[in-house]
Amino acid sequence: MAPDHPASPDHPAFTLPTTGPDPLPWDTALAAVLGYVRGRRPLRYRSPTEREGRWVQVAAFGHDRFDARPVPAGPLGEDDVLVAEGLHGRLDPAGWAAVRDGLDEAQSTTDALVARAAGRALWELPEDELSVLGEPGTVGAHLRALAGLPEPQPRYVLAALHHRHPRLVPLLSRATWLQSVPHVREGDSSVAAVVHRELRADDAAFAALETATTDLLGRELSRLRLHDLLVYLAGTLRLTTAVALGEQTEEWLRWHSARMPVARDVQAHLHVPRAGPGR
Asked: For bias kind Low complexity, which ranges apply (predicted)?
């Protein structure tokens, strides 16, 4: 269940089947994203040269290790493996070699995918692009081919590609896949069609969240990434933690303070005088 925020007077709630049966209040989603980006947790650290350790604050989630990294230039390569490790964890030598080979294998499919999208974001594509009825050569077909690479390649390859194309290539993890696959419909090319459908259904809420997070954080997180965060946090039962961390951030306090005059105006407009005696 999502943390209990009142409905925002300014923005609609999210109705995302992949996060659960209940609407997700817009304010809750904003706090969760801020917590994912800015949240910190204590870690006891002791270097080999120290007799006693000390407490340090480290990132609670993967934003700094993944989203904040520079975007590699040129053909897919080793820098892209490092980016993907920031999200999904370190690979052993055999896994590293497999993912590196997977990036080489994915290059031509990625080029075809980007060409097919023609500068459009995933949510801007027509439904046929994520339907088997439109295949072959569709965006959905290319994404399914990338997700069909042998393990451990798919998660890492798609993370690397999302980092380069954050408006087009959805991320994939076991948690988000499990949240999404029950909502696949007949004719869908893959779980990417579920993401596409939810982004379009909640277009206004995602557009507002994308704008708000960009303004508050000073950098853009695409609504495709925002969708992934909400599904991941809900599916791994980390949503409450992320919201609590987000509500402690300077960005949340700044946003909430800016909203207060609006909230007071709404309350004044809706104020109904109490009935007099005898009523």
From this structure: 1-13
**Type of residue found at 254:** R
Which of 80, 126, 129 is closest to 106 using CA atoms? Answer: 80
Cα–Cα dist 52/164, whole Å: 42
**Taking the CB of residue 192, how many other CB atoms lie within 10 A of it?**
25
Instruction: Please state, in angstroms and rounded to a whole number, the distance separating the CA atoms of residues 112 and 172.
Output: 20
User: In this model, does residue 274 exceed pLDDT 50?
Assistant: no
Angstrom distance (rounded) from CA 259 to CA 263: 6
Helix (H, G, I), strand (E, B) or coil at 241: helix
The span from the first CA to the last CA of the chain, in angstroms, equals 40
Can you tell me the distance from the alpha carbon of 272 to that of 274, in angstroms, rounded to the nearest whole number?
6
pLDDT at 259: 77
Mean pLDDT over residues 197-220, rounded? 97
pTM above 0.85, yes or no: yes
Which value, to the nearest 10 degrees, does the dihedral of the CA atoms of residues 182, 186, 190, 193 take? -90
Structure tokens at 36: 């994912």
In this structure, what are the phi and psi dihedrals at residue 56, rounded to the nearest 5 degrees?
-130, 160
Burial pattern 10-20, b for ≥16 Cβ within 10 A else e, equals ebebbebebbe
Report the SS3 class of residue 55: strand
The C-alpha atoms of residue 230 and residue 96 are separated, in whole angstroms, by: 28
Residue for token pair 């209040």: 25
Percent of the chain clearing pLDDT 90 (strictly above) = 83
